[in-house]
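Batch job 17 of 40 flagged for manual review because the log was empty.
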Amino acid sequence: MSIDRPHSKAGCRAGGNAGFTLVEALVALTVLAAVSPPLFRMAVMLRAGTEAIDDRTRSEIVARSLLDAALGRRDAAQYSLSGSTDGRRWSVEARPFGDDVRRVLAGAGLRPDATRKAPRDGAPKADSTSGQADRTDGEEVAWMPVGVTIRVETTGRPLRIDTIALARKAAS
């Protein structure tokens, strides 16, 4: 036994056709036309911002590697380098930072009761930047401050890093 329910006419239009009228479609297109230009501008701005951040990040990576290399040069008090990495032009300049030269005795930073640990193989530890063996205790080492400037080009404002490093004073 089945019970027939009367069909509700609330969801159907006159004439029994379901769908959108021409007026409803035109209203929807008008709303879409009014909203789409600001959304398109926002999408373009987001993309440009993302590209600028990506460019700046890549330039910072190049600058960081140049900074590591520049701070590793302990024997050169003045030099100038330039080149291109990953399509970015860069330059590194190092110059003496005043005439202040400090003489430090090797091992002077050790406590009186402390002793240096020898490497396991018994050989003197080599300095990774200059290839020279460590100075023996009591030998005088002259250090001088060196100003280092690194510049890396970006699509926007160039990236510039200024720092101070220590370099061995050249023997006179």
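Reviewer: the log was empty due to a logging misconfiguration, but the result itself is present. Residues 22-72 form the longest helix (51 residues). Unflagging and moving on to job 18.
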